[in-house]
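To close the section, here is one more complete example, presented without commentary so you can practise reading it yourself. The ligand is adenosine-5'-diphosphate.
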Amino acid sequence: MNRYVTYLIMGPPGGGKGTQGKILGTVPRFFHCACGDVFRQLDTRTPIGKKFIDYSSKGELVPDDLTVELWHQSIDAQVNAARFKPDIDVLILDGIPRNVSQAELMAGMIDVKQVFQLSCANRQELVRRLRKRALKENRLDDASETVIQYRLKLYEEETKPVLDYFKGLVTKIDAGQPPVKVCYDILGKIWETRNGSLTFNA
Ligand code: ADP
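Output:
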């Protein structure tokens, strides 16, 4: 199997991964996949759906094997439905891999071209965004201060080492800027490093 040409969006909860992923997903030949959305689309009455609620409501990560398998199934389904065409599309991933073990499990499936680190030193700003999201999107995992703090800690301890794993491919972007500028920075870098790809004439 050819590995999917992939751009990763990484950052703390509230850092704007989902916002940027959604915008980028509207660009022709870009396909956006957010791991959190894959989980949220599960039927919560199924054993795996229940498991997700169980972990996410505490701010915990879902176990790696299960996560990567579910993500793989979801991507396969998108390929089969011809929504994602890996021979001509690039994959924009947000929320996965979320630790080094997931990155290792996915190494045979994704060919990572760039990693965008949405960085925000202002923790209070992240918390403010998450609180707002809790109200607007009814997200259980954004509702409690303890869970928010735990997820921010988990990001520092578990997810940040993924940046080292992809050393040399990481572009740090100030996530405190307006969304349009964050998007401009990401697209600028993708364009700059395109290396003969992204011709869009297929
Ligand atoms: P956020 O970036 O704000 O944490 P997400 O929508 O990416 O939000 O994730 C919500 C929850 O879904 C996580 O807290 C976790 O429980 C679960 N989840 C999402 N992606 C992964 C992943 N790659 N590995 C394990 N759990 C995940």
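Once you have examined the tokens, check your reading against these statements. The chain is about 50% helix and 15% strand. The chain has one domain: 4-193.
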